[in-house]
């Protein structure tokens, strides 16, 4: 059964955050709130975590995973950014955007897009995930919590606990966090291509 952490949306309890981090570090898969919608997450050094996310969401290996980062210093360890791309991303970050960028050697090969050698990155604004990332000390490998037969992501922590109780290890609930996934901007070829319009305004990249 998944553990259930009911935390304050602005000032989450450190004990609950600490317990969630321990679950991540011990190979667990969690559902947690972001500034766009709920996400599934695991640690970067958890090979089984990626496969569990693919199974839960019924996705194939072509799925672009996202490294959810605490700040630009962390993000810069995992993707290559030139000055113009950095400025464009900095202008809307933190926020509900995911950026597809060429990966550095710090990213495990199994997490890369097979052909492009890219990975998704983002810096969210939600206080709960920011505290989670701060306590974790490294990015969280993530994917939007959108189930295969659903038209929209789940927004209620209790519903996630009820439906996924035996396939994930914890749910962090801080109340509703939105229905829309992130806006995805692909910089694989050095210029922006909006591949999904979501919670973030796409106009700066069009």
CATH architecture: Alpha-Beta Complex
Kindly provide the name of the CATH class: Alpha Beta
The overall pLDDT, averaged over residues, is 94
Uncertain segments of ≥5 residues (pLDDT<50)? Answer: none
CA gyration radius, whole angstroms? 16 Å
Helicity level, as a percent range? Answer: 25-40%
Helix/sheet category = alpha/beta
Domains counted in the coordinates: how many? 1
> What's the total count of β strands?
10
Task: Give the name of the CATH superfamily.
Answer: DHBP synthase
The third-level CATH topology is DHBP synthase
| Percentage of β-strand residues | 15-25%
GO molecular function: double-stranded RNA binding
InterPro entries: DHBP_synth_RibB-like_a/b_dom, Sua5-like_dom, SUA5_domain
Protein name: Threonylcarbamoyl-AMP synthase
Pfam family, one: Sua5_yciO_yrdC
Describe the protein in words.
GO terms for molecular function: double-stranded RNA binding. This is Threonylcarbamoyl-AMP synthase. It holds the Pfam family Sua5_yciO_yrdC. With 206 residues, the chain is of the alpha/beta class. The protein has a single domain, classed as DHBP synthase, CATH 3.90.870.10. It has six helices and ten strands; from the N terminus they run βαββαβααββαβαβββ. Strands 1-8-2-3-7-4-6-5-9-10 form a ten-stranded mixed beta sheet, sandwiched between helices. β2 and β3 form a beta hairpin. α1 crosses α5. The longest helix is centred in the N-terminal third of the chain and has 12 residues. The chain is globular and about 45 Å long. It starts with a strand and ends in a 10-residue tail after the last strand.
């Amino acid at each position: 059964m998944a553990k259930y952490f009911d935390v304050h949306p602005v000032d989450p309890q450190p004990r609950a955050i600490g317990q969630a981090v321990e679950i991540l570090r011990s190979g667990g898969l969690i559902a947690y709130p972001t500034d766009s919608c709920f996400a599934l997450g695991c640690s970067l050094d958890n090979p089984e975590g990626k496969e569990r996310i693919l199974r839960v969401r019924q996705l194939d290996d072509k799925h672009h995973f996202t490294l959810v980062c605490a700040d630009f210093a962390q993000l810069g360890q995992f993707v290559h950014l030139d000055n113009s791309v950095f400025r464009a991303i900095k202008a809307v970050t933190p926020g509900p955007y995911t950026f597809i960028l060429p990966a550095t050697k710090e990213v495990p090969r199994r997490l890369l897009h097979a052909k492009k050698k890219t990975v998704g990155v983002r810096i969210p604004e939600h206080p709960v995930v920011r505290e989670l990332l701060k306590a974790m000390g490294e990015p969280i490998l993530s994917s939007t919590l959108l189930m295969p037969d659903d038209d929209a992501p789940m927004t209620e922590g209790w519903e996630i606990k009820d439906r996924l109780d035996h396939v994930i290890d914890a749910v962090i609930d801080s109340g509703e966090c939105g229905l829309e996934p992130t806006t995805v901007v692909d910089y694989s070829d050095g210029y922006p291509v909006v591949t999904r319009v979501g919670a973030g305004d796409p106009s700066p990249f069009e």
